[in-house]
User: Which sequence fits this backbone?
Protein backbone atom coordinates (compact mmCIF):
# COMPACT_ATOMS: atom_id res chain seq x y z
CA UNK A 1 0.00 0.00 0.00
CA UNK A 2 1.48 3.33 -1.04
CA UNK A 3 0.94 6.56 0.91
CA UNK A 4 -1.14 9.18 -0.88
CA UNK A 5 0.76 11.63 -3.03
CA UNK A 6 0.97 14.98 -1.20
CA UNK A 7 1.46 16.93 -4.42
CA UNK A 8 -1.94 16.37 -6.02
CA UNK A 9 -3.80 19.50 -7.16
CA UNK A 10 -6.55 19.14 -4.54
CA UNK A 11 -4.03 18.78 -1.69
CA UNK A 12 -2.06 21.79 -2.95
CA UNK A 13 -5.24 23.89 -3.20
CA UNK A 14 -6.26 22.92 0.34
CA UNK A 15 -2.80 23.62 1.69
CA UNK A 16 -2.60 27.05 0.02
CA UNK A 17 -6.12 27.88 1.19
CA UNK A 18 -5.19 26.96 4.79
CA UNK A 19 -1.98 29.02 4.55
CA UNK A 20 -3.92 32.03 3.27
CA UNK A 21 -6.51 31.71 6.05
CA UNK A 22 -3.71 31.44 8.62
CA UNK A 23 -2.14 34.69 7.38
CA UNK A 24 -5.53 36.42 7.43
CA UNK A 25 -6.18 35.20 11.00
CA UNK A 26 -2.77 36.41 12.17
CA UNK A 27 -3.36 39.78 10.47
CA UNK A 28 -6.77 40.23 12.09
CA UNK A 29 -5.40 39.33 15.51
CA UNK A 30 -2.48 41.75 15.13
CA UNK A 31 -4.81 44.54 13.95
CA UNK A 32 -7.14 43.90 16.91
CA UNK A 33 -4.22 43.97 19.35
CA UNK A 34 -2.91 47.30 18.04
CA UNK A 35 -6.42 48.81 17.93
CA UNK A 36 -6.96 47.77 21.57
CA UNK A 37 -3.62 49.27 22.62
CA UNK A 38 -4.50 52.56 20.88
CA UNK A 39 -7.93 52.62 22.52
CA UNK A 40 -6.41 51.90 25.94
CA UNK A 41 -3.80 54.65 25.46
CA UNK A 42 -6.41 57.23 24.40
CA UNK A 43 -8.80 56.34 27.23
CA UNK A 44 -6.12 56.70 29.95
CA UNK A 45 -6.46 60.07 31.74
CA UNK A 46 -3.45 62.31 31.46
CA UNK A 47 -1.47 63.26 34.52
CA UNK A 48 0.81 66.25 34.82
CA UNK A 49 0.42 68.95 32.18
CA UNK A 50 -3.31 68.42 31.75
CA UNK A 51 -5.36 71.36 30.49
CA UNK A 52 -8.36 70.35 32.61
CA UNK A 53 -9.27 72.33 35.71
CA UNK A 54 -8.29 70.64 38.96
CA UNK A 55 -11.01 68.53 40.56
CA UNK A 56 -12.79 70.24 43.44
CA UNK A 57 -13.54 68.14 46.50
CA UNK A 58 -15.72 68.89 49.53
CA UNK A 59 -14.90 68.48 53.22
CA UNK A 60 -17.61 68.39 55.88
CA UNK A 61 -17.11 69.49 59.48
CA UNK A 62 -19.35 68.94 62.49
CA UNK A 63 -20.22 72.00 64.60
CA UNK A 64 -16.94 73.37 66.05
CA UNK A 65 -15.24 70.17 64.89
CA UNK A 66 -12.45 69.09 62.58
CA UNK A 67 -12.59 67.74 59.04
CA UNK A 68 -10.85 64.60 57.92
CA UNK A 69 -7.14 64.90 57.15
CA UNK A 70 -6.10 65.96 53.66
CA UNK A 71 -2.80 64.50 52.44
CA UNK A 72 -1.37 66.50 49.53
CA UNK A 73 0.50 64.57 46.82
CA UNK A 74 4.25 65.29 46.66
CA UNK A 75 4.93 68.66 45.08
CA UNK A 76 1.31 69.81 45.48
CA UNK A 77 -0.36 72.21 47.88
CA UNK A 78 -3.95 72.38 49.11
CA UNK A 79 -6.22 75.41 48.67
CA UNK A 80 -9.39 75.57 50.80
CA UNK A 81 -12.40 77.76 49.93
CA UNK A 82 -15.36 78.58 52.14
CA UNK A 83 -16.38 80.55 55.23
CA UNK A 84 -16.18 79.99 58.96
CA UNK A 85 -13.12 77.78 59.30
CA UNK A 86 -9.43 77.77 60.15
CA UNK A 87 -6.80 75.78 58.27
CA UNK A 88 -4.39 73.67 60.33
CA UNK A 89 -1.07 72.25 59.10
CA UNK A 90 0.53 69.25 60.81
CA UNK A 91 4.27 68.80 60.21
CA UNK A 92 6.45 65.69 60.28
CA UNK A 93 8.05 66.77 63.56
CA UNK A 94 4.57 66.88 65.19
CA UNK A 95 4.03 70.62 65.56
CA UNK A 96 0.88 72.32 64.33
CA UNK A 97 0.53 75.56 62.42
CA UNK A 98 -2.61 77.58 61.78
CA UNK A 99 -3.05 79.76 58.70
CA UNK A 100 -3.30 83.42 59.76
CA UNK A 101 -2.17 82.82 63.35
CA UNK A 102 1.00 84.86 64.02
CA UNK A 103 1.91 82.78 67.09
CA UNK A 104 1.99 79.44 65.20
CA UNK A 105 1.72 80.07 61.46
CA UNK A 106 1.79 77.48 58.68
CA UNK A 107 5.22 77.73 57.08
CA UNK A 108 7.09 75.92 54.34
CA UNK A 109 8.39 72.59 55.52
CA UNK A 110 7.81 68.85 55.52
CA UNK A 111 4.05 68.67 56.12
CA UNK A 112 2.14 65.46 56.88
CA UNK A 113 -1.40 66.68 56.29
CA UNK A 114 -3.84 69.55 56.68
CA UNK A 115 -7.34 69.81 58.07
CA UNK A 116 -9.92 72.53 58.64
CA UNK A 117 -11.80 73.37 61.86
CA UNK A 118 -15.27 74.89 61.94
CA UNK A 119 -15.61 78.25 63.72
CA UNK A 120 -19.35 78.82 63.11
CA UNK A 121 -20.73 76.35 65.65
CA UNK A 122 -22.91 74.80 62.92
CA UNK A 123 -22.27 72.00 60.40
CA UNK A 124 -20.01 73.44 57.71
CA UNK A 125 -18.56 72.47 54.33
CA UNK A 126 -15.50 73.74 52.48
CA UNK A 127 -14.13 72.91 49.07
CA UNK A 128 -10.49 72.20 48.29
CA UNK A 129 -8.24 71.58 45.32
CA UNK A 130 -4.65 70.43 44.87
CA UNK A 131 -2.46 73.02 43.13
Assistant:
Amino acid sequence: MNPPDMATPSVLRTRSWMTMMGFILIGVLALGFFAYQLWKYKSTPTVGNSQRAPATMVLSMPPSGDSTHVYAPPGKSVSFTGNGFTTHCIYTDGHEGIVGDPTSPCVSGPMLYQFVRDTTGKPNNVTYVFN
About this structure: Helices lie at 9-43. The first strand starts at residue 57 and ends at 61.
